[in-house]
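Second attempt. The first submission of Xaa-Pro aminopeptidase had a stray character pasted in from the spreadsheet, which I only caught after the job came back as garbage. Lesson logged: always re-copy from the clean sequence file. Corrected sequence (497 aa) follows.
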Amino acid sequence: MADELTPAESNAATAAGPEAESEEPIKQRKNGLYPGVSDELAENMKSGWADTELRDLAPVPQAAETAARRAALSARFPGERLVIPAGNLKTRSNDTEYPFRASVEYAYLTGNQTEDGVLVLEPVAGGHKATIYLLPRSDRENGEFWLSGQGELWVGRRHSLTEAEKLYGIPASDVRELTDKLREATGPVRVVRGYDAGIEAALTDKVTAERDEELRVFLSEARLVKDAFEIGELQKAVDSTVRGFEDVVKVLDKAEATSERYIEGTFFLRARVEGNDVGYGSICAAGPHACTLHWVRNDGPVRSGDLLLLDAGVETHTYYTADVTRTLPVNGRYSEIQKKIYDAVYDAQEAGIAAVQPGGKFRDFHDAAQRVLAERLVEWGLVEGPVERVLELGLQRRWTLHGTGHMLGMDVHDCAAARVESYVDGTLEEGMVLTVEPGLYFQADDLTVPEEYRGIGVRIEDDILVTADGNRNLSAGLPRRSDEVEAWMAGLQRDHS
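This time the job returned cleanly.
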């Protein structure tokens, strides 16, 4: 990683020229190799650059949808100023940052993903005027484009404000002027909290936690029903995820020679090539690690005869993520006890998927899947029946542990701030997308089950779209039934060898 060519703070304003003398100096790395910038170099760097303004930009694909979403937001909060920040870069270590991911609320309403952006809806007669506040292109006059660690020559070109207006269909202004405007704002204001401390500080005497929470809840519930663009993006994410699972199956021999990290790296390559990133930390859990629900250390061995629980999803460039799980035999064949447990989870998932219907309760698929698992646990003698008693007391949860699914979208656990009555206690509608993911987990140290069960964990998870007449499995491209999984793995490995 290159050493930034930043000048000493005492020299920065002078080197940048008289227009920058009142600006905050560009920060220098303490042990940088250059102590300053000569007047001659500063002047030289101002000129001789081609015009790179992009003049033939088309709007982002979701521009019509984001406009409709802003209109719905405007209608919900008439007469109020609404402030939705993207967020800021977060330091990973010293002077390196984590990869930036804009707040879901901001990206959902704008289509923009750049740090420091803020969407402001100002009340006007008949609705709101939207403005997107962004950092303009790096300034060549004050040297920021090559002297600042966030300048264009260090981290890449930003869009100009004019370009941003074309892309997002929203008037654009310089975000560096926004905090002063917000401090002077009058009338009711709401802000999405937790992303931009500077914006929140400018509004500290104008907002209340209760009112801001109402804004956050509305934006969460707005995402419960997906529009056509979102459904297309989720299908894209799932299709890439299917290919990522195929990639993993083809290299299981290399994972055996190394560790679970080979699986993690293999899937990550697909996610970065075809999408933005993984939608969440991939769970590459082999052997007894499969019994740890969110095993993301991925540093354990991969052994023939064990199961691999792979829970992973590709995130698209527009932030929509898949969330799929398969539990695969590392050697390509389920043992008798592994198949027995796997088939029980498969039957539970079948019952759960069948219960996903428009007009049904959100809880129906969970209840249906849990009933099947409780029946098997009673049948196997692991818990005393009858089944109704087991379900009433939740006794099956020792081995099923988690809920059977959740909403899916721009967050892997989407719409999390929605009201309980709109989500868990709500009714399914056409356009909702959710996961159905029952599991059975027999911990390696669980003395209440026969030894042959211990250390076996199985989860099967698919992404289900609620349709007008039932549902559609977006991840049906991956086999689920045990015999189909074995045949699929054999075919991939044969073709790869």
